[in-house]
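Known limitations

Files may contain more than one protein. Parsers should not assume a single record per file. Below, a two-record file is shown to illustrate correct handling: read the sequence, read the token line, then continue until end of file.
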Amino acid sequence: MDDYQYFGNDSTSVIEFLNFERSSETEILSKETENLIKELSELNKPIDEKLMRKVKDIMGKLMELNDRTLTHTNHVLVTLAIMIGEIFNTLKARLKYRNVKWEAFAKKHFPMLKSRTRQKYMLIARRKDSHNFKYLGIDRLYELCVASKNFPGEEKLEELFRSYQIEPRNFLNMSVQEVKEFADSILFHRKLKKSSIDAKFDLILDLKKMNGKLDRKLIKDLKKFQVSGGCPDQYLRFLLQNNGKPPTDLEEDKRKRFRKINSELARLINVFSEIKDNRSELEIIDANILETLAKELKEIMDSRKSLGNLP
């Protein structure tokens, strides 16, 4: 299986860069951009629908070129990382027979590379199954290798995708961006599992597709939400409904309000005690309000009992 099997076939896929003359295309786009900027700078020219179509057209071309260039760069960088990793793996194997400690040797002879970087290169080089996915970039590919290390067979990375009902051969019909979204969502879902956070993968993928941030802060927020009695899936749905923005602590605000209600109810008990101590003033109290209050309290108590054995 060659390196280009999973590169897709749309305008943002890796296949495109094989026939991509960056210099000529960049030159053409540079001239188009220059002309557009001149046009936008004309104070007397209205920014109408026709002009905005032109802006969006050139922006689309620039972003497409950016994506293809980034994909090409990732492929080259991973290829170089594999070469370096293979050299290191071979050296390490040789030094083992001479009882030379690899880490000390590497620090002395290759100080330009941090230990973590060497580890990434060496693992990716060893994992031949990852070489079909060079376009994903070094860091993402390394994380995928770590995440899939316990899967059976030689194609561990493919098995990782399949464990999420994602068939790698379908990547042929996907853009690089779509494959990255799957990869990032899988990695984040596994991080949540390590933090004992149970969340649906589909919700994570939907959030990633809308450019939501899958980062440490989200893990922290989900953990906090879960510990306080909330459901992680509910929090993710909040984000999806709010364009990826945190739900302004809706659930936490609700809990704070209910804690405040406890103190208000305690004050109400004191009011009732005062009323009982002043029976002569009972005629002032509105009977309808008392009846409504009694009815509401009964409904709250019945609802609370239905929740089970609460303290």
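...continuing to the second record:
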Amino acid sequence: TPNIAVALRILFTLPVSVASGERSFSNLKLLKNDLRPTMSQNRLSGLALISTESPIAKNLDFTELLKDYASIKNQNNSVNINYFNL
């Protein structure tokens, strides 16, 4: 019946969505430990994103990143450069 097919589709998709959420919380717990109690929310969010998206982070070209950072004249300005091709 159609209802059973819909129920099975929902059942098979739930573990995938739950696993990614659990992985994110696991990464966050590892990042925010007793050694980093004064970490700002912005830095914690950035580290959590890099940790969760580690395959993308491993493909970053740090040479290009450093060249762009060095070319900024006023380093007091915030740097928002998108290196992720999303």
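Parsers that stop after the first record will miss the second one. For reference, the second record is described as follows. Residues 2-31 form the longest helix (30 residues).
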